[in-house]
Amino acid sequence: MPRVAVFGLGQFGTTLAEALTNQGVEVLAFDTDPERVEAIKDRVALAVELDSTDERALRAAGLDQVRVAIVTMGTNIEANILTAALLKQLGIPRILARASTPTQERILRALGVNKVINIEHEMGEALAATLAIGEVHRFFTLAPGYSLVEVDVPTHLVGKTIAEAQLRQRASVNIVAIKKRVPDVDERGRRTLREEVNVVPKPSDTFNEGDLLILAGTNDDIQAVLRG
Predict the structure, then answer these.
(1) CB within 8 A of 170, min separation 6: which ones?
(2) Torsion of Cα atoms, 17 then 22 then 25 then 27, to 10°
(3) Where do the domains of the chain lie, and which CATH numbers do they carry?
(4) Is 52:25 a contact under the CB 8 Å cutoff?
(5) Which H helix or E strand runs over 124?
(6) What's this model's pTM, rounded to 2 decimal places?
(7) Rounded to whole angstroms, how far apart are CA atoms 186 and 209?
(8) pLDDT tens, residue by residue, 105-134
């Protein structure tokens, strides 16, 4: 089981720690605030009140088996940078750190941080692209102008096969997967919908009402597909 250390249990750090735990990751969570540590202790493998800018405390924190460390204190710039630097000295293989300013980002990169997380910038870009493309459930930037999106199947595609739609030929958009909601019955005998994911769509597969499509392409091309 992978082991990840999360430093900083604000809203972003707490959400991240819980999401990683839900995905089967062993999470070690650290913060200087005892109330934040207490609030998450039952939802992660280990939660510890710790000043991560204290080198001795950090060395005693049991990070030997940690492969990834994530520093999430974006607004406390001094603690953020010092924690990242100390983790680098400890030899943590992969370090991710949040930045809230361009200067902070440059310093973190100079320290050798593997990935700098700029939540405000990334969310701004994602929102702009989402508004430009249209109704999007999920969005991921592949490169400037290129996206991976999850969208409802457009009405003009319902009933057509992938071969008939010719999205790749006409718009250079790739269908990565199709999610279908299949009628099911739960353990209490209640009718429900079960989600099935087709990760290898075939040319003969048909688009049905209620399907979710995962598409990859340029923002303009995806927008053209959705508009028909």
Answers:
(1) none
(2) 30
(3) 3-117 (3.40.50.720), 122-227 (3.30.70.1450)
(4) no
(5) helix 119-133
(6) 0.67
(7) 23
(8) 899 999 999 999 887 777 777 777 667 676
